[in-house]
Amino acid sequence: MLSRSLTVLARMTVTFLVIVTLVFFATRMTGNPVDFVVGEGLTSEDRALLIRYFELDGSWWAQYRAFLRGFIDGNFGLSFIERRPVAEIVAARIWPSLQLLLSAMALTLVVALPLGILAAIRRDHWTGSAAMAVAFLGYAVPNFVLAVFLILVFAYWLNWLPVVGNATALHFILPTVTLAAGLIAALTRFTRNAMLDVLGQDYMRTARAKGLPERRVILHHGLRNAGITILSVIGLQVAGLAAAGSVVVESIFAWPGIGDLLVRSAIRRDYPVLQFGVIAVAAAVIVINAAVDLAYAWADPRLRRGTLA
Amino acid sequence: MTALAAPRAPGALARLWAEADAVQRAALVLALILLALALLAPLVAPFDPNAQSLLARMRPPAGFERARPGHWLGTDELGRDILSRCLFALRLTLGLALAGAVIGLVLGGTLGLIAGLLGGRVEAAVMGAVDAQIAVPFTLIALFVLVLFGNTLPVLVIVLGLYGWEQYARIVRAETRKLMAMPFIEAARAAGAGPVRIARVHLMPNLVSPLVVQFTLSLSGIVLLESTLSFLGLGVQPPTATLGAMVGVGRDYMPNAPWIVIAPAVTILLVTFAVQILGDWLRDRADPRLRPR
C-alpha cells in the first residue's frame, strides 16, 4: 500500500511537471512573457525588475527555474483586466463550481448506476435497449445544444425556470441537468460494461446456485465487484468530462465558476488568468485521479493486501 | 478480428449493409446524405451564405406568417438565408473534422508505432505524454492554445488535429506490443526484415480495424469540439458560417426568432447522431463481449 501511494504520488508529480513545462514552452514560443503576464502600462523600472525576477535575461534553464519558483512563491501574475492577483480571482470561483459539480455528480450517480445495471441484466430485453438509448442521447447531444433546447422550452416557452446565475435553488436545475447529461451517458456505459464483465464470472453462478435471491446476487456479488471498476472510471474519465463540461455549461448559464472565468478570460485575452486557471484545473483533475487511484487500491482487497501486483 | 474490415471496397460496404439493423442503416444513409450535401453545398444552396438583406431580417421558415418565399428555413438577424448558411457550415464542419481526425490518426498512430517498436526510453516518453494528455481536459488545452497563438484557421486545424492523438497512440502501441510477440513477426525478423518493413508489411494491415473504429469515434468528438469552440466564440471567426457559431449567435434572438438557433442545432444533432451510431456500431462489432450469444 505504501509503495503504491509513492508510485501514485510520483506519477502525479511527473504529470504536473509535464503540463507546467508545456505551458512554459508554449508561452516562451509566442513572444516576450513580460508583456504576456503583465500587459501594458508598465514603467521601464518595473519592467526591468520583472525581467530580473523571472531571470528573463538568463538561459532557458534559469528562466524555467524562475517560472517554477513563481509557483512556490504564489506569484502567478496580475489579471490584465481586474489588476488583482490571479490566484485570488480563481479562488473566488472555486465554491460555485464545486457546488454545480457536486449536484451534477449526485444526479449522475442516482440515474446512471440503475440505468447501467438495467442495461446489463436486461441486455436482450427492450428495457435494456431503452436504457442504452438514453445513454446514447447523452453522448450524441452536445451539451450546448441541450442547454439551448432546455432554455427554449423551460425558460422562454413555459417560463418555469431561471437561466442566469446561481441565486436560488431553482437556478441549479438547468445547469445541473445539462452538465449531468453527458456524465450520465458516460457512467451508464461504463457501469453496463463493468456489469457485463462481472455477470459472466463463476462466482455469480455459484451465488445463484446456492439459492441467493437474484436481487442479492446482482447487488451484493455483481455490483460490489463491478463497483471497483466503476470507481476508477469515475475518477479517470468523469473528472475530465466534468471539467470540460463545466466550461461550456457555466458560460451558457453565466454561472460564476471557474469554467465561466476561463471562457471569459479567453475571449478577453486575459492571459494570466487563463494560464493559472488551466494549470489549476489540470492540477485538480490530477489530484482527483490520484485520489481515486488510491481509493481503488483500498477498495480492492486483493490490491490492499498486495497479493495482486 | 477478421470480421471487421475497413469499409473501403464496395463489397465490404455491402456486407456491412447486410448485417446492419434499421437504425444503423438509417444512420448510414443519413451520413451519406450529409456528406453529399456538404460536398455539393455551393450547388444546392439557394443563396450566398454571407449575403445580407436588411429588409428581410429574422423572417420565419416557410409555412409561418411573414415567411419570405425562397428562404425555406427563414433568415437570421442580418437577413442571411439560414438554409444556405447551414449547408456551408456543414461543409466547413465536416471538412475541419475530417482534416483533424486524419492529423490525429497520423500523429498518434506514428507515435504509438514508434513506441511499440522501439520500447525502452522512447516508449516511456510517449506514454508519459499520453498520461499527461489524459489528465488535462482537451477543451482547456484548446482554449489555451487558441488564445496564445490566435484563433486563425490553421491554428484551429492543428488544435482539432491534436484531439484524440493519445487514444491512437495507446491503441497502436498496445496492438504493436501484442503483435510483436507473435511468431510471424519473429519469423519475419529471422528472415532479415528491418523494423520499417515489419511495420509496413506485417503490422499496418493488422492495425487497420482498431484504427477505423477509433477514427469514427474521434470524428464525432472533433465535430463536438469544433462546434463547442465556435459556440463559445473561439472557433472560426464571423462572418464565415459554422454550426456552433450560428447557435451561439442565435442564442441572443431566442425569444423572438427561435428558428435562428433551432436550424443549426438540429443540423449538429443530425451529424453527431449519424457519426456516433456508426462509431458505436463499428466498435461493438470489434468487441467480442457484445457478439450475439
Task: Give a short overview.
The complex is a heterodimer of chains A (about 300) and B (about 290). In chain A, about 80% of the residues lie in helices and about 0% in strands.
Major β-sheet annotation of chain A = none
Instruction: Briefly note the CATH topology name of chain B.
Output: MetI-like fold
Percent of residues in helices of chain B: 55-70%
Our count of domains of chain B comes out at 1
Mean pLDDT of chain B: 81
Detailed description of the structure:
The complex is a heterodimer of chains A (309) and B (293). With 309 residues, chain A is an all-alpha fold. Chain A is built from 13 helices and no strands. Chain A is 79% helix and 0% strand. With 293 residues, chain B is mainly alpha-helical. Chain B has one domain: MetI-like fold, CATH 1.10.3720. Chain B is built from 11 helices and no strands. Chain B has helices at residues 10-19, 22-44, 82-118, 120-135, 138-149, 153-162, 165-180, 183-190, 195-231, 243-250, 259-286. Chain B starts with 9 loop residues before the first helix and ends in a 7-residue tail after the last helix. Chains A and B meet through helix 1, helix 6, helix 7, helix 8 and helix 10 of A and helix 4, helix 5, helix 9, helix 10 and helix 11 of B.
